[in-house]
Write a structure and sequence with these properties.
With about 900 residues, the protein is of the alpha+beta class. About 55% of the residues lie in helices and about 20% in strands. It folds into four domains: about 1-45 and about 165-410 and about 740-870, no CATH class; about 50-165, Alpha-Beta Plaits; about 415-490 and about 625-730, no CATH class; about 490-620, Sandwich (Lipoxygenase-1), CATH 2.60.60. The chain starts with a helix and ends in a 10-residue tail after the last helix.
Length: about 900
């Protein structure tokens, strides 16, 4: 038996070499990509978790020291071990002056970098989420506890991305596995068909069916075992120099390698036995796919695939949603291959009909041969269709995932750089002085509510929106936003360096007049609103019953405009009434163009009817106008709003209300995303919050001040901007999206590997078809067709077959991409603020087609050599080797 195996292997070394190459490539890709995916995912998780030197990289629990420090520390250690296990590093800190009421003890938790990975991030996220509550309920807490740091939110986002990546990584590997299994199965059938006569001869000489099965299984196991050794060698050797977990990651794929061995052995044995048993001489069909791909089978597979795709598109996140999302692409690729085979026959027949109208043997003869040998070429059609379809899916995922992630990050960030700080006079100019910063502007980002629905309000200078905000497809255009929320300015320009207010004041307590505070709200050219305190001077009036009242202040450098002017009674004189008359407002002695009231009274008393402060003048007038607002579709649908409708937004911190009018509705807005929110012009918001009409029992209105600085320009200048402002600067980023990036790498690599597999199998299939047609060579030569011309015709047949198959695979792949990939991308980009837009990155498709073309070229060389050898043969009934 061993000798027979050796002789059989030597006689079929060409097909066996193709099988060996297919299994080597399959095992290398499946095991290698699994290891690479694990390494890439671990690296992505570690890179996505913020460093411990920033607030987002740690969690700090702080409390008072207990009388027995050892007991307190033991309770804390036990709590951390129970909740966090070995996923975090805990550092004990002592804060404040010892022995004073300010003394505190704190524990700072940071992730353990040596154990950080996909398997530990879930436990770390869950532990950090429950740790503050558990700490307050533990014996480590002493008379209250405070929590600081942003690590829980950052780790939770990384965990979301890890779950998405873990669910998506098997998808391209399953598609690759389907192609690998199909290629090995068809090569095994070719091997069995080539041994049809040999099998009959061995049975005639007494070889039993059991011995025949053992013979096929033994040979298959030898091939599979050799392939496994080569595949693991190809994976392990490049991994060893890299270190950093490469070798353990590859070794950990041994169950997958064993599965490949078993599947390859069974496929080879069963495939060649069935093919050899059914072969009937040289007329045995080379393509079993055409016979299997009946219309009924095609309809059944398409229906099943359609149901799974429908489930994948409609099922919510969960176990079932993950299962159908994982299986749908593989079933879809199989359905595309089957439909390609079914459509190949009619397409080939139509092409033959058109070619038959031409004179001469070309192109009618090659076209008719393709139409007659649909069964022989159907395997090649299926292989090429699967490979190209997989490449289109990979290109679609790569294009949509990258674009969706980048666009979502940009639309959520709004601009290139953001710094959270109280923006004061000169901060915008300082920011714009940094190299790489093209434009800076103040911003307000505050939580608001309307009719019980939470939202976010973003206010920016309307004239800066065009150049400051990102232009993101699918989101509101910055120019459109600026036009929608922009409003004529009602601020009054201050031409001078000193602002002065003069008035006459009367009160029963003259000291109360001197303690009155004067504050002006001024706005610079960049839109920054700052309060300006005026220094008060009082004196006796000539009439004797009133006092002169003067307040003045030097303006900061730059051009300024006045938004409002406030008088506020001193806290010590709450019960004292003060009245002011005969106002005059000037800048460097020149009167400002404002209309001042004849009298302003600060009524005494706590609550009603007291008036502790009042606006002498406001750009809003007594009531103020409604502010134009651009809102998101989510807010509009929740509140049933449309353009032109009024909407009131309540500031969550102060409870004050902003009256607005819906000016536009967009699915997403830069700086807000798709969540409920609204955008307003910063100046309009400032003015609207300064109505001059006094509210009995309440102080005068004050505008919200800018709490962020936004800058457009090169994101690489963020560190320099942070140094200039003295605060961290944020750039568009998403931890969850960064974790899912390895999925794109694995998908593209799997698609290119599938193209290599298709090319390897294509060479063997074309060579087999050429051997089956050996009898045609001498017949055509007898009627004057030279062997070289016959070779060109055979190559033309192969090129046409591959081209048709590639076109059918690309069409099916694009349809699958439109149906499946947007949903997969939505899972891969958990923080997506925009729906994925259908697009296909062309380079994976081009690369896959190029690899298949290389296989076709190698097949052409084999065809030419075989035809040349067959032309020298003198026997018509069997092919030359």
């Amino acid at each position: 038996m061993p000798r027979l195996i050796r002789e059989r292997t030597r006689a079929s070394r060409g097909v066996l070499a193709s099988i060996l190459a297919a299994i080597v490539v399959s095992t290398t890709l499946l095991c290698g990509l699994s290891a690479v995916a694990d390494l890439q995912l671990r690296a992505a998780v570690r890179a996505a978790v913020p460093d411990a030197d920033v607030p987002e990289g740690w969690l700090q629990l702080q409390t008072r020291p207990a009388a027995d420090a050892a007991v307190q520390d033991a309770a804390a250690d036990a709590l951390f071990d129970e909740v966090l296990g070995d996923t975090a590093v805990v550092e004990r800190l002592e804060l404040g002056d010892p022995g004073t009421d300010f003394e505190r003890v704190a524990w700072r938790i940071t992730p353990d970098p040596d154990r950080l990975g996909p398997d530990s991030i879930e436990r770390l996220a869950a532990g950090l989420d429950r740790l503050p509550t558990a700490f307050r309920d533990s014996d480590a807490e002493e008379r209250g506890a405070s929590v600081s740091g942003g690590l829980p939110a950052a780790v939770a986002e990384v965990a979301i991305g890890t779950r998405a990546a873990t669910a998506l990584l098997p998808v391209p590997l399953i598609v690759l596995g389907v192609l690998a299994w199909f290629a090995v199965l068809q090569l095994a059938r070719l091997l069995g068909l080539s041994r049809g006569r040999e099998a009959a001869l061995l049975r005639a000489r007494g070889l039993s069916g059991r011995q025949s099965a053992m013979l096929a299984a033994g040979e298959s196991a030898a091939v599979a075992g050799a392939a496994l050794g080569w595949a693991l060698g190809l994976v392990l050797v490049p991994a060893l120099p890299g270190g950093a977990g490469g070798l353990p990651a590859v070794v950990a794929t041994w169950p997958l390698a064993l599965l490949v061995v078993l599947a390859a052995t069974a496929t080879l044995a069963v495939g060649q036995l069935r093919a050899a048993g059914r072969a009937r001489g040289s007329d045995a069909a080379a393509g079993r796919v055409a016979r299997a791909a009946t219309p009924a089978a095609g309809i059944l597979l398409v229906v099943v695939t359609g149901v799974v795709i429908w489930q994948a598109r409609t099922s919510p996140s969960g176990v079932w949603g993950i299962v159908v999302a994982t299986l749908a692409p593989a079933l879809g690729v199989a359905a595309v291959a089957l439909l390609a085979v079914l459509l190949f026959g009619p397409v080939a027949a139509f092409a033959a009909m058109l070619a038959g109208r031409a004179r001469g043997i070309s192109p009618s003869y090659p076209a008719r041969q393709v139409a007659r040998r649909v069964g022989a070429y159907s395997v090649a059609v299926a292989l090429v269709a699967i490979a190209v379809c997989g490449a289109v899916l990979a290109g679609g995922y790569a294009g949509m995932a990258g674009t969706t992630a980048a666009d979502s990050q940009r639309v959520q960030a709004g601009t290139a750089m953001r710094a959270v700080l109280p923006v004061g006079a000169g901060d915008v100019a300082r920011a714009e002085s940094v190299d790489g910063v093209e434009l800076a502007a103040p911003a307000i980002v505050v939580p608001v509510a309307s009719s019980g629905e939470d939202a976010v309000l973003l206010a920016l200078p309307a004239d800066a929106m065009r150049d400051l905000l990102f232009e993101v497809p699918g989101a509101a255009a910055p120019a459109t936003l600026a036009d929608a929320v922009g409003a004529p300015s009602s601020l009054v320009a201050i031409s001078g360096s000193e602002l002065r207010l003069d008035a006459s004041a009367r009160s029963s307590v003259p000291e109360a007049i001197a303690d009155t505070a004067v504050r002006a709200w001024i706005v610079d050219d960049a839109g920054t609103t700052v309060p300006l305190a005026l220094e008060v001077e009082t004196g006796d009036d000539a009439t004797g019953d009133t006092s002169t009242f003067a307040a003045r202040a030097q303006l900061p450098d730059g051009a300024w405009r006045l938004a409002g002017l406030e008088l506020a009674r001193g806290n010590a004189w709450a019960q004292v009434e003060i009245s002011f008359t005969r106002f005059a407002l000037s800048a460097d002695g020149a009167p400002l163009d404002v209309t001042l009231p004849p009298v302003v009274r600060l009524y005494g008393g706590f609550g009603a009817p007291g008036v502790p402060s009042a606006l002498v003048w406001s750009a809003a007038g007594e009531e103020g106008d409604r502010v134009p607002l651009a809102i998101t579709t989510s807010l509009a649908s929740t509140l049933a709003l449309d353009v032109g409708d009024p909407v009131d937004l309540s500031f969550s911190a102060s409870g004050r209300v902003l009256g607005g009018t819906v000016a536009s509705v967009s699915d997403a807005i830069p700086g807000i995303g798709a969540r409920p929110g609204a955008v307003a012009d910063l100046e309009a918001l400032t003015v609207a919050q300064l109505p001059s009409a006094p509210t009995i029992g309440e102080p005068a209105a004050t505008p919200p001040l800018p709490d962020q600085l936004w800058a457009a320009g090169d994101e690489a200048s963020a560190p320099a901007l942070a140094d200039e402002l003295g605060v961290p600067v944020l750039v568009p980023a998403s931890q969850s999206t960064a974790v899912t990036a390895p999925v794109t790498i694995v998908w593209i690599a799997a698609a290119l590997g599938g193209a290599v597999l298709a090319g390897v199998a294509l060479v063997a299939l074309l060579a087999a078809v050429t051997r089956q047609r050996a009898g045609e060579v001498l017949v055509l030569r007898a009627i004057g067709v030279a062997p070289r011309r016959q070779s060109r015709q055979r190559v033309a047949e192969a090129v046409v077959v591959v081209a048709i198959a590639a076109a059918l695979g690309a069409a099916g792949g694009y349809a699958l991409t439109a149906l499946l990939v947007p949903g997969l991308v939505a899972r891969a980009v958990p923080s997506a603020a925009l729906a994925p837009v259908l697009s296909v990155d062309g380079w994976p498709v081009i690369a896959a087609v190029a690899l298949i073309a290389v296989g076709c070229l190698a097949g052409a060389v084999a065809i030419a050599a075989s035809v040349a050898a067959q032309s020298r043969s003198t026997r018509l009934e069997e092919a030359a080797p």
